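Hey team,

Filing this mostly as a record. A colleague (T.K.) asked me to run one chain through the structure pipeline before their review meeting, and I want the input and output archived in the tracker in case anyone asks later how it was produced. No errors, nothing strange. Just documentation.

Input sequence:
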Amino acid sequence: MGKSKEISQDLRKQIVDLHRSGSSLGAISKCLKVPRSSVQTIVCKYKHHGTTQPSYCSGRRRVLSPRDERTLVRKVQINPRTTAKDLVKMLEETGTKVSISTVKRVLYRYNLKGCSARKKPLLQNRHKKSRLWFATAHRDKDRTYWRNVLWSDETKIELFGHNDHHYVWRKKGEACKPKNTIPTVKHGGGSIMLWGCFVAGGTGALHKIDSIMREENYVYILKQHLKTSVRKLKLGREWVFQMDNDPKHTSKVVAKWLKDNKVKVLEWPSQSPHLNPIEYLWVELKKRVRARRPTNLTQLHQLCQEEWAKIHPTYCGKVVEGYPKRLTQVKQFQSNATKY
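Output structure:
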């Protein structure tokens, strides 16, 4: 079937003039001997765009119709874990054959990009209720209150991390040369467990846990470092101690010691590590220590102590300063995972 003849600009102008004078689409079609569908297209274009100039499209026609594109978008919005290969297979079942690149381009046009899913704690209903209560109860606290919170937590630091990721410039066939590889050892080459604390004004103590952490060990750490860190950081009488709901932390022995020493504890929601700003300090510490490449566990501990002491109070203050925004996001996302 040959290509239909294009309607001239003069004829287009006549169609618009007749329409403006009150003639119907059918009457214009009979008068000018132009198909009614063409008349309707020209009139609609004039109404919406104010012009009758034809639109010229370059390139070949798209394989997927707007309806197909909406189907793809709807599919990934219902299940974000759907792969491009799955979508290609789905389209093939309907008789449309496309490449994976075509599917990706369609999704990109709708601002949908393939990203690694973030790992977040599993939240049950009781956890969500607890988080929502925490955010509601503390939403009116000003920044002065959060500056007087002594944040604490434990972390593990490996000598050779499993997640080291480096890019190298190499030629084809040189992937296995020693200079282009990252040496690995079983279990990360050993690791150390650390307990630390900080406030907006700077870092407190950093303690190495030598054995399995039990409630007696935790009480020992508190005896050794809690009051010392408070004095070092010059906290006033209104300071509050934060710790998570690990069974060791909430045991009767620990609760008795905290009560006897008149330590005010911030009630904490379970499964909420991202609400603790010390997580940012752990990331910063591990990055700095990794850059210095320790060769044994003794050196690893030494470098951790040095780099922990070097973290500037300005950085600590910046981390704590935006804390109210975290609580706002908890409410905004209905107690689900946030970007923090």
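Quick notes for T.K.: The mean pLDDT is 87. The longest helix spans residues 215-232.
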